[in-house]
Amino acid sequence: MSEDFEPKIVAFVCNWCTYLAADLAGTNRLEYPPNVRILRLPCTGRVDFNLIIKALEMGADAVVVSGCHPGDCHYTAGNYHARRRWILFRELLETMGIETNRIFFSWISAAESKKWQHMITEITDQIREMGPYTAYHEISEATA
Amino acid sequence: MTGQLRERCRRLLQDGAVQVVIGYGVSTSDGMPHPIFVRRPDDVDKLIWNEQCMANLTTYLTRDAVKALGKPAIVVKGCDARALVVLEQECQIDRSAMHVIGMACAGVGSPRAPKCASCDVHVPAAADEVIGEAPAQTGPADPPYAELEEFLQKSPAERFAYWREEAARCIRCYACREVCPTCYCPRCIVDKNRPACLDTSATVKANFAWHVTRAFHQAGRCTGCGECTRVCPVGINMRLLNQSLARAADEHFGYRAGTNRETPPIIGAYGLEDKESFIR
Amino acid sequence: MGRIGVFICWCGENIARAFDMDELTEAVAEIPGVRCAIHYKYMCSEPGQALIREKIRSEKLEAVVVASCSPHMHLKTFRAAAAAAGLNPYLVEMANIREQCSWVHEPYEDETVAKAVSIIRMTVHKVLRNRALEPIRVPLTKRALVVGGGVAGIQASLDLADSGYEVVLVEREPSIGGKMAGLSETFPTLDCSQCILTPRMVEVGQHPNIRLYTYSEVESVEGFVGNFNITIRQKARYVDIEKCTGCLECWNRCPSREAPSEFDYGLTKRKAIYVPFPQAVPARPIIDLNSCAKFLRNECGTCLKVCQANAINFDDQDMLVTEQVGAIVVATGYRMYDIGREQENAKYAGYGEYGYGQYRDVIDSLQFERLLSASGPTGGEVKRPSDGAVPKKVVFIACVGSRDNAKGIPYCSKICCMYTAKHTMLYKHKVHDGQAHVFYMDIRAGGKGYEEFVRRAIEKDGARYHRGRVSKITEENGKLIVRGADTLAGAPVTIEADLVVLAAAMRPATGVLELAQKIKLGYDEFGFLSESHPKLRPVETNTAGVYICGACHAPKDIPEAVAQASAAAGKVQVLFSKGELTREPEVASVNEQTCAACFACVRTCPYLAIDKAEIRDRQGNLRKMTARVNPSLCMGCGTCVAVCPSKSVDLEGFSEEQIYEMVNGLI
């Protein structure tokens, strides 16, 4: 991979846990790579699969979806509904040959700023290693 | 069976038990069975039943023009009947306001439709009446996801390349959507603007996203009738995508769409014990 | 919309140390739609806010982005500032370039700057699609329904009534008072239960703000917070309690005395027309169909003849009445674990080996309370049920059901350790030469004065505690042979007892699940009702406007139940403190024309805020079905949006348009 490849990572995070974890990472000055773009949504339950596809179309090299741990959802059950959809969606992605090792799901509570820091650092390194998601970007640029 | 079917339908129409029979008739253009809507007892002789009766007629039940014809009787095969369960679970039909004529079926199409190899519903479940006898068992049915499992032997890159090619061939005619009994939204998501969640142009990117969307909207809902694939003018095998979600529903939640109306649909429900292992 | 103002905050050095603020501002000014971009040292300070207000007016800004800290920190501040300048507050968004950028990334690095611009660009994209919103106003009926007239329900009712709100109190038994009315004395102070409770009961009965429905049940609940419609079934009592003067001549003269007394837990018989107990509120009788000769054989009718007030009505029917309330407090309390072998649910295995229901002198702790009570069947003398003899040796067994997975209940019933210690004391006070034995698993005496109380039972009143379980109880020669183990001594223990008292587990009252379904409340696997948050919202539920208190929530003692009841009443008062309910407008709504009525959203909504609705034409013909969000209940999670296949439901504040625009602005 070229030395100056900077992975583009899009994170859809819930307002009440993971967004606050990212805030806390700031408060604690926990440094991590600046490659992630955070989209704040009320709940992981709000994250539709279309958004993941849309992010890939926009040139993302990896997508993160993160919210409250099971049992901690601000809205009681939004994350459970999300989890169930992800289970199914991942199987579809597998069948379509989409690189599921570029799509990450996580539970990060408002207190887990270190987990956020570590995860983003790890994912950035990993994607830097893997290179850009050329296969998907090619279809985004191709015309039929 | 055709004779029996005609007699039953004649009686149903004569008695006023139903106002329309949704069944198969012979197309004047190609001589193959096509959907017909019989409203008069005199016309029941247009109804036929044979091995070429491929279409899943339940897709017509949710259409306004068909609803306007009055209480229907509908001719279904075992595989088609599963869609009735989904439609009922999703409040699209009132099962008590229709008469379901189940046709015992040994398989359709020549060569046989792929779904028939793994068929386990030769006699429709929960029909109001069944015409014909259960076919003699010809050995155990194939495992339901055999076609998918074979496809998954390919590497992810090969699979992606395959779907990229298929997406490149797709002409976005939406026949797959129109024929599907469980694609009944009056305004499909692709037809929504502000925002346009999906690009409607027939580019590879947009077609790819369409096929992801079409398939995922069938998660836990597709009953495997295979009509999408049968009608596709460019021959895209959407069954593979449908099967991958059907298999996921089966494996993770023990759920098979259209087999039991009492089991709540898996989208809109959740389990505390749902799989976690892929979540960091 | 194309007049966006972007206000970039230095946050002193916190943001400014990472960027050349002029360059950053220039880059932001290039973003399409941005009318002006300004940086300032402290946007949240009064001069900073003044700057925003001034620019909103002078530049005729249509929306504002403040690029500074987390929206969790200052979104409210900046929305208020915008509102002060006449801009709808929901047209303000924040771009978080402090916590999520300047604090965590290398200053002045290209990627850091690019990220900051990107965050601001995304937010500009979003705010371009924001809509002016108004808070949702919901009318409010300032009356409360309290379900259950035990001590918790009484406390909640009185607190609310005393603060000036009307209360509808529904109790399914003929009298309020609940379990506490039948208790003898209460730990750890040993004050007499009835002495402290009955004045409160009388207060309820006479309170001008309390409408009391006894022998009544909640039939149905419709509506939502602020606007509940309650239907109450007043069960036929066969005595008109308005006409009845409470002289109780009917009770004195009724010749029947066959039915087991509910109040004495079957230790005595009562008449067919009866008042549950002398201090009942209302102190009005009721006729029990199943033991009255008039109903059974069409004989007698004595009560009808003796009643001067003409209050007896053998043709009485159940009546349905409706009440409008704005809030509901559920205080349905508990019942005891069925100790006998037969269970309503196979999960609960029962305790056939203890001979409850088989040996008359094996009783449960509520029955023992009656034997200790001055108003009880023995006038407060401890006499055993079989022969009325004073028992000289009494065995108390704790954790009968509780903490016993094999019997289906893993939880601790919390109060049994304390009341068992109390039982040994009261017994010793009444039978000086008696000996109490207690079999226990652990002693859990957390609470003010509780541990001291248990020590007193052991050290002063001589109760003998055996740490271990009882395996079997048999009856031989009029004695109950209790075989157990003392695990501390490491030896089996056999006691020849005259009376055995079982401290059975607490379970939620019967019928609570049906009630929970009517009110749409969550409950756990044991049927205890679920609070909204175990720590921060302990008396709220996930159904707005519905609160829980007392043992319907979990096993608890009287002080806790009362504290929780007051807390629930306090929450209702908070709700009622405003003229109307106002809620954040960032809720979901359905495009009813395109909705396919598959109702995936209805199944998904964690708050049951989405209903199936009909759209009819002017002639009243059904045109179509649709999902419809009740904005008074929606909490704005957006899970419905994700499951809607046609995206016919959308969420204000995080709309499809806003999010797609953000994604478009991402990279």
CATH topology of the largest domain in chain C: FAD/NAD(P)-binding domain
* Rg of Cα set of chain C: 33 Å
Number of strands of chain A: 4
Sheet with most strands: strand arrangement of chain A: 2-1-3-4
Overall form of chain A? globular
**Greatest interface by residues involved:** A-B, 37 and 56 residues
User: Using DSSP, what is the number of strands of chain C?
Assistant: 34
Total number of helical segments of chain C?
Answer: 18
Q: How many structural domains in the coordinates of chain C?
A: 5
What CATH calls the topology of chain A is Rossmann fold
Under the CATH scheme, the architecture of the largest domain in chain C is 3-Layer(bba) Sandwich
Q: Summarize the amount of helix of chain C as a percent range.
A: 25-40%
How far apart the termini of chain A lie comes to: 28 Å
CATH superfamily of the largest domain in chain C: FAD/NAD(P)-binding domain
- Overall spatial form of chain C: elongated
Low-confidence spans of chain A: none
**N- to C-terminal distance of chain C:** 22 Å
What does this 3D model show about the protein?
The complex is a heterotrimer of chains A (144), B (280) and C (667). Chain A has 144 residues and is an alpha/beta fold. In chain A, 44% of the residues lie in helices and 16% in strands. Chain A has helices at residues 18-27, 49-57, 78-96, 113-130, 134-141, and strands at residues 9-14, 36-41, 62-67, 103-107. In chain A, helix 1 links the parallel strand 1 and strand 2. The longest helix of chain A is centred in the middle third of the chain and has 19 residues, at 78-96. Chain A is globular. The longest helix of chain B has 15 residues, at 239-253. Chain B has helices at residues 2-14, 64-67, 78-89, 146-151, 156-169, 175-179, 204-216, 227-231, 239-253, and strands at residues 20-26, 33-38, 47-48, 72-76, 99-103, 129-131. In chain B, strands 1, 2, 3, 4, 5 and 6 form a 6-stranded mixed sheet that branches. Chain B folds into 2 domains: 2-131, no CATH class; 146-253, no CATH class. Chain B is of the alpha/beta class. The model of chain B has no long low-confidence stretch (mean pLDDT 93). In chain C, the strands form 12 sheets. In chain C, strands 10-7-6-18-29 form a 5-stranded parallel sheet. Chain C is of the alpha/beta class. Helix content of chain C is 27%, strand content 24%. The mean pLDDT of chain C is 94. Chain C folds into 5 domains: 4-128, Rossmann fold; 143-235 and 318-333 and 510-576, 3-Layer(bba) Sandwich (FAD/NAD(P)-binding domain), CATH 3.50.50.60; 249-306, no CATH class; 339-507, FAD/NAD(P)-binding domain; 587-651, Alpha-Beta Plaits (2-Layer Sandwich). In chain C, helix 2 crosses helix 3 and helix 12 packs parallel to helix 13 (450-459).
